[in-house]
Amino acid sequence: MQDIIRNILWSCCDALINIINGLMEGLIDGVLPFSMFEVDFVDQAYNFFIAVMILYLPLKVVYEIIYAMILDDEPVDHGKKIRGVIFCFMLAIGVQMLTPSINTVAVNATSMLASNVNTDSADSGGLSSQMVASALSGFGGMNLSTSQRLVQRRSENLNYNGDEGSSFSITERDSENVYVYEFSELMAMIGLAIYVVLFFCISVQIASRSLTLIIYYVITPIVCTSLTRQNPQPFTIWKNTVFSVYAINFIQILTLQLSGTIVTEIGKIESVSGIVLIYVQAILYFAILVMILGIPPFIQGLLGGYGAGVMESVRMMSTGIRATRTFSGGALIGAGAVIGSGGTLLSAAGSGLSNIGDTM
């Protein structure tokens, strides 16, 4: 009877492990490599904006010179204007030629980190295997080396000792009739479920940033026209935003990998026990979740870019709703909240473009 109950509980854990592996495989092989830089429509859109740049740039330079002569006390630096025009054309053409290759290199670096094999232990696999092992150890209370062996034996469908012709079984016992994989199935399920949510949210964030990167790429020629100004703020915003997209993806995967080690250390806490230990572990586990999902806004603000991702937009929607409720009254509270949240989301999605347009 005990073996039957254990098999039923393990089937739930096994399903969650399959979801984690599937999400990780989808992230590495599907989401990260996904690119539209070589799609004909994107290429045509880029060429269209180059044509717009060619028509717009002379008019812009003439306007800036006339404006400076009439309203500005400082003399016009014609050399800077000429250098800005030349660099504008060079950058617009160079970005179109080099971006696909640069994107491939950045994606490969992030994928390599996510699929990295932990050489410190022969029983560890890629990031998903490490996260599963850490969940069984940190949440389920299993010995770390045993959890790593479980993950390996499960993938190889072998018994605990790895004997040829054997098969994996969660109810396997040792010579003393004790389970070789002893852990709390319920706590392990909770930990694996948290990882499922975490992997899904990170995949959505990375996919959102990758799609937004196409917009930043297409508008590059228009952004480059700001190089004729003394302070090319639109170009600076564009440059920082594009760099932050790749930096956030890389650092978020790195943080996810680090969280596996943190979970294992949380499972070793001995300063408290009983219900207090459960409270402490729960707080720390959810702190890891908040930390990983909170990295994008921090990196974005650090680099000075725009568009931290889906969770940042959700945060801004919540801020808009609270602000609307504060300044609205009576029957207008509900309607105002909807309008405020929608407007905030649109503002978050188009903040980069609006700032560029206002500056130029």
Write up this protein:
The chain has 360 residues and is an all-alpha fold. 76% of the residues lie in helices and 0% in strands. The protein contains eleven helices and no strands.
Q: Any chance you could write out the topology, listing elements then pairs?
A:
Elements: H1 2-31, H2 40-71, H3 78-114, H4 127-138, H5 144-156, H6 185-218, H7 220-224, H8 233-266, H9 274-303, H10 310-327, H11 332-359
Helix pairs in contact: 1-4, 1-6, 2-3, 3-8, 4-5, 4-6, 4-8, 6-8, 6-9, 8-9, 8-11, 10-11
Order of helices and strands: HHHHHHHHHHH
Radius of gyration using CA atoms only: 27 Å
Multimeric state: single chain
- CA distance, first residue to last residue: 74 Å
Count of individual beta strands: 0
Shape label: elongated
Number of helices: 11
- Percentage of residues in DSSP E strands: under 5%
Low-confidence residue ranges: 117-125, 307-360
Question: What labels describe this entry?
Answer:
elongated, about 350 residues, mainly alpha, about 75% helix
In a few lines, what is going on in this structure?
The chain contains 11 helices and no strands.
